[in-house]
Amino acid sequence: MMLPESGQPSVTSEIFSGLRSDESGVALFIKTDTLTIQLAEKLSLKLGHDKEQYPYIKSKLREVGRMVVECRNATRESSASLADLIGPKKFIDVVHATCQTSGFNDEQHLYKTPSLALKIGHRA
């Protein structure tokens, strides 16, 4: 995937300004993580011409952000970035965080939100 050059386009800034703050820190993570900002820029370049796509872009960023924040909590690595989680050493941590984010029940082997697990990229 080709990533856009650094420097937030105005569309990305507009999308970031519309992110609501939360206690879990997902919005703050999205706005400060380098790779997540690049993802936002890429999605903005691809879909930003249509304002109706802004909620879709925000939801994609939140999905990734929720997974990373959950991974941070599970591994107790409070400064882990999205780039830190890409690689074979962190694969199991990312799978576990994806399961937690999408509400996996170990006893019933069911997801509370199975579509979220698929969107983040975990195949059950």
Write a structural description.
Helix 2 (26-32) packs across helix 4, helix 3 runs antiparallel to helix 4 (54-75) and helix 4 (54-75) crosses helix 5 (91-101). The chain has 124 residues and is mainly α. The chain is built from 6 helices and 2 strands; from the N terminus they run αααααββα. A two-stranded antiparallel sheet has the order 1-2. The chain has helices at 10-17, 26-32, 34-47, 54-75, 91-101, 114-120, and strands at residues 104-105, 110-111.
What's the gist of this structure?
The chain has six helices and two strands, in the order αααααββα. It has helices at residues 10-17, 26-32, 34-47, 54-75, 91-101, 114-120, and strands spanning 104-105, 110-111.
Task: Spell out the blueprint of helices and strands.
Blueprint: H1 10-17, H2 26-32, H3 34-47, H4 54-75, H5 91-101, E1 104-105, E2 110-111, H6 114-120
Helix content: 55-70%
Question: DSSP helix count?
Answer: 6
Termini gap? 25 Å
Would you count the extended β strands for me? 2
Strand order of the largest sheet: 1-2
For the biggest sheet, the summary is: 2 strands, antiparallel
**What structural class should be given to the helix and strand makeup?**
mainly alpha
**Which term fits the overall shape?**
globular
Enumerate the spans where pLDDT stays under 50 for 5 or more consecutive residues.
none
SSE series: HHHHHEEH
Average pLDDT over all residues: 84
Beta percentage is under 5%
Radius of gyration: 15 Å
Using brief descriptors, characterize the structure shown.
globular; 3% strand; two-stranded antiparallel sheet; mainly alpha; 124 residues; 56% helix
